[in-house]
Protein 1
Amino acid sequence: MALTLADRRHKWDVKLSPFGFISPYFLIFGVFGLFPLLYTAFVSLQKRNLLDAEGAQFIGFGNYEQLLFHDPYFWNAMGNTVSLWLLTTIPQILFALGIAHLLNRRLRGRTLFRMGMILPNITSVAAVTIIFAQLFGRDFGLVNWVLSWFGAGQVDWQAGTASSHTAIAAMVVWRWTGYHALIFLASMQAIPSAMYEAATLDGARGWQQFWRITVPLLRPQIIFSTVIATTGNMRLLAEPLLFNPGTAAATGGSDRQFQTAALYLYEQGFTKYDFGYSSAIALILAVATMLVAGVSYLVTRRIQTD
Amino acid sequence: MRPKTTPRLVLAVVCAAVTALSACGSGDAAGGKVKLSLGLFGNFGYTDLIKEYQAAHPGIEITERTAAYSDHHKNLAAHLATGGGAADIEAIDTGYVAQFKATPDKFVDLNTVGGDKVKDRWLSWKWSASLAKGGQQIGYGTDVGGLAICYRRDLFEKAQLPADRDAVSALWPTWQAFFETGKRFQAKAPNGVKFMDGGPTVLNAIFGQAPVGYYDQNDQLVVDSNPALRTGWNQVVDAVKANLSAGLLYSTPTWNTGFTQGQFATVTCPAWMMTKIKDQAPDTAGKWDVATVPGGGGNWGGSYLTVPKSGKHTKEAAELAAWLTAPEQQAKVFTSKGLLPSTPSLYDDPKITGYTNPFFNNAPVGKVFTDAAKKLNPQYQGPKAGDVQTEFGNAMQRVEQGKQDGAAAWQQLVGDVAKLK
């Protein structure tokens, strides 16, 4: 029997409607995600001044060649990015696990503490950085004041490589630990208490229970948090930019000691106006982010689930 | 029935959306007022002038937005590149004006709206510094820096140096004498107080006096071959080695704290610096004074008001920019905020030359700065002067932080500057 028009319309409806419903995502992704990505790729093949689009010249992979083989400041920035990634991601995940474990116990004012966890994350990153930059001040900073009680000398936090990375990592860890802790806490509460009771009967103590039961069962959340933290830290811009503001902010210190890759991109694009070069940095950074996120995924996946 | 209602509903929603959008687009005309925005950095002292202008022009509403120095110029570049978001009037500092005048088609050519008729108001070098190669004028000059030395009377007294401004000026006819005085100061200085705030500010002052700066007239970088820069660099490196510097980089929070905590006794002082000190450390009123700068004249800083073409009301904006930078208004800004006019007709005006500043122990700043401005040798500013200045600041910081000696820092600087093409 031939299909009536209504039948056919119903068939199309079933087939096509789902695409209609998900199309807003693809439209928005196309406009705000895919198009900028392709346009960046296009610009990265040009020698182009930010203010002078008409004067752009096509130079093929010239920007990439310059970046990868002739630009020590780019590799310096990548090195700083990786260093800050290690200094932020590992403490973040470990502190978050510990805090979530503490909050998972019975204690007075539990809800208050749990809500407090998210507070650092919802404060403005600019405000946080400016306050931390004051705390890490060379002459009148709180951190140096506390260190002086223990006889430690005045640390010029901005001047050194290790000291500036430590200070910036402190800002990132302070801001994001609570966020990850809440994710871990939510999944900890889904672990049936019978497992802990059984472990207690078997003679496992608190610490053993934590490493043998809690952490393995949190594996998916730990992977998620690590990948999120990794992609976030590869794009680290505001903290190093505002850590030592002033006219030299974009270079990340007098010797680029805390210039991240994103900050180098910003310097090339918005102080040197080299739009083509900064687009090439953006694409390389995107690829590097995927690689590093992949590595951290593989590492965290190795958490035992026996 | 359903299939029929759906299109009608969709149509209604779309219409509503379109109406809402178009209403947003023309909202400006509905109010009847022309809205002008001013994009500034630092303190231009325009708040009272804007009230005055609005009172005289009831059809115009003006808003100011202020950002930090480097953020402001980076935002402006981004806004001009994307063709949206720039204010109707945007301020540009001397260090950046050459970079922006390289793309004059982004700005209204002020010569086409009457600028060429009033060009004699300005110092001729100020006028030509914002003049593009094709003859387009992209900005009206606001202030010029001029140069002096601001110093702390109380700290000089404690170090058993003269505190009277004429006697202090007599201490340093040259920069060499300035650093010698620094050594005398440092020998008896109160604990924790250094003679100068940091190497970079002193460098800027010395370089500002040189007949040729970072660039020659053909826009070629001459950092490596200009003896004036190397001599000044060596002098400041020696001063840092002699422990005269507090090691602070200007425009950073630690530098700002330095003013409130009295960490240094002198700071090279273009006229706009006085406002900065007053805003930053109001509690030090009366402790500061102003002496002449070693080596006579010199300039550091000073700005321009430009009218980006992307603005909606460029005609009104150009009128406002012309008014704000007219001699009468520059005179008012000088007496309220201390910014030195770029219009030489005022330099012999008793209202200006007789002006004293109570914050700086009633120093005759009107006379000090107009004298400095008259002695000033105009220096050509090349395309990336602002970025070269940043690299010099970084290099001097590396010396002050003990990471490199003067020679190594200079060598790296030359390499960094060569990349600024």
Protein 2
Amino acid sequence: MDLASIYYLGVTILLFLVFAAIVARTYSKKHKASGEEPKYRMMNDDHPEENGKGGRDVRRK
Amino acid sequence: MNQQEGYADDVVKGFITWSMVWGLVAVLVGVLISFQIAFPQLNLPPYLTYGRLRPIHTNAGIFGWGIGSFMAFFYYITQRLTRTGIWSPGLARVQLWLFNLAIALAAVTLALGMNRSKEYAELEWPVASLVVVVWVIFAINIVMTIVKRREEQMYISLWYILATLVGVAVLYLVNNASIPVSLTKSYSAYAGANDANVQWWYGHNAVAMVLTTPPLAIFYYFLPKATGVPIYSHRMGVIAFWSLIFMYLWTGAHHLLWAPVPDWVQTLAMAFSVMLIAPSWAAVFNGYFSMNGQWHQMRENYLVKFLIFGITFYGAQTLQGPSQSIRTFSAFIHFTDWVPGHVHMGTLGWVSLVLFAAIYYTLPRIYGTEIYSIRLANVHFWLVLTGQLMFSISMWIAGVQQAAMLNATNPDGSLHYSFMETMIEIYPYWHIRALGGVVYLAGLCVFLYNIWKTVAGAKTQGAAQPA
């Protein structure tokens, strides 16, 4: 097996592991409630939370 | 008063209006070219020939109607799912004007014969560069709106929106890499089999990132809104999204089976195409399971009819597509009328039915009124459904017959039928296709009339209100 084949195989395995991690996290019991929460919250999104445009970056909490 | 005050919806109105204009152009030109195929004497050179009009039809349909609507609904959906206004409404207005300029320039230059001769990437470099500017503005505005969101968790539609923005940008830039030799002529940066491979990596993933992920974003948002019941499983939506993204970008070379590209590339494309059934049907099941206890709405709620038939055509499309990627079946139906039958089930059935529902849902809300006529919306539904089925079924039958005749051989191995004999047998189906196009066009006219009366009624109501 040459270097290029090892590289391609490595990338493939890496991508598969990333996908498996996403599946494991999404379907873990710990994240069940939070994983389904957006489908309920989107049902009542016809009004912005505050008046005015813009907002804040929630990831900076 | 607009019940959704606080969101910047003027640009949504603008994109919806213009996408409907370009949609009408696409269907009108489509009907014309379907008649030109059935009656070749209708080709009037040099401008009104099938060769010039066909790319105008596809560009107006996919980019004018499709992308125009997606821009509208991405702005509509993103604002609501992030609970914040568009990052820059001014930039969105600039984008609307540049978008229309690009589509108008596309129509004019293609009619004049300026064409890169690449499927779905026909635009010459000045117009293609303008498209890049439009997309960059669009992406910045949506991404910044999401960055400044007030909802911590992102609903599944937002993932599909982000994937579309990134996917289209990468595909378009790579496939449009070219060397200009004048203002109206350029040559591809790639050559031979590499050019073909890049082109079909783009060509098929334009289907992925323009005609699959955006309608899914819209479907996942508007089905719960229309039924009043949340989708069956958000987590299933997330997993389906990631598996779709991981797999779709490898499938383009299934357009090059039996072509001189490496065998492993063809096999990889075929394998990933078949695996794509799983994430595609996860979305279909998510839609169907969301209807548990709600199936009565198929009779009572015209929006649900559009959405559920739309996802059903998506399901049919995503069974046909993978099966067509298998070598033996591909060899049978490639270069036959089966292919336009397949493609139009996707565009007229899946994409357009979902967009019709989204427009019916959205416009009355942002104009603060009611739909003019639900009865007319039902007439519209049955006309476009009939037209699409006439088109697709006639082409499927024509394709199988064509393939059977083209593959028939005599005992000595020579072809049993001449090419002309196969053509003559297909004419009745071409007549049915043209008629199907007329029926679909009639449905579209009913839709436009209904929308026009809805908007006109809203303006009248607004004017009649005391100051």
